[in-house]
Amino acid sequence: MKQLIALTLLLILNACEFKIKEQEYEKGPGKPQEESSPVMSNPDISKDFLLGKFDYTKDEKFQLVGSKWSDKEIYLQKKPYEAFVKMAEAAQKDGIDLKIVSGTRNFEDQKKIWERKWKDNEKKIKEKSANAKKILTFSSMPATSRHHWGTDMDINSVDEDYFKDGKGKKVYRWLVENASKFGFCQVYSDKKSTKRSGYNQEVWHWSYMPLSSYYLDNYIKNVSYSDIKGFLGSESAKEIDMIKNYVQGIDRSCEGINN
Question: 258: burial class by Cβ within 10 Å (0-12, 13-18, 19+)?
Fold first, then answer.
């Protein structure tokens, strides 16, 4: 009788072990898994976040930029801000001063900029997609801007002429040579050399790639044109293929920066 009980227990244990290994196999890298959306599984990243529909001044991941690094009230996510401070301190040792002139802009912030330009252009440009393309030379549609995420910032000036000579030229050269060491990249680089689509070159716009790359991947997987709405001219987003041509229109060499 004891032998029979022992044999039964052994069979039960073997069955349990097999079941556990079977489950581990199904979860492991050797077997395809069902795709799950990081947006849906990670509570820190919602679709509203990707679209800029939140209040960054009340979000614990964001902080106010110190007066040493900006003359305005600007917010950034903490990690990009910490990386910027390290970069700015390194730049100071080389005689270069870096300041943040623009940081996080949520949906409502971007909507104000967009609609002001939309109304100004409407006086001369009646066709909606043409109006949108005119604004998109440098400014993003609400719900599509990288500035929504608190990972991207404009440094020192948004005037291209500032960077062409003198102090500005030295600042830009230093950033090109050193920004990647701190995780930053100029995502809107020269379109002729990189063959990218979308916005014109923005030498002032620098993105903290360890976070922004992740957000961009999530955006592409989870945002559709039905989500881009709530502002003048929003219907033109699909017509001009906003997500493909602009949201994804970055310098792909930036994707390898993960410092």
Answer: exposed
Strand partners, 207: 152, 185
Sequence-distant (6+) residues with CB within 8 A of 31 are: 25
Higher-confidence residue: 220 or 28? Answer: 220
Q: Count Cβ atoms within 10 A of the Cβ of residue 72 and give its class: 0-12 exposed, 13-18 middle, 19 or more buried.
A: exposed
Cβ atoms 92, 123 nearer than 8 A:
no
Pairing between strand 184-185 and 205-208?
antiparallel
Token pair belonging to 201: 């070159």
Q: Which of 229, 258, 223, 242 is CA-nearest to residue 37?
A: 223
Type of residue numbered 116: R
pLDDT digits (tens, 9 = 90+) for 70-86: 999 999 999 999 999 99
pTM of the model: 0.83
| pLDDT class of 258 with cuts at 50, 70, 90 | confident
CATH topology of domain 44-256: Muramoyl-pentapeptide Carboxypeptidase; domain 2 (3.30.1380)
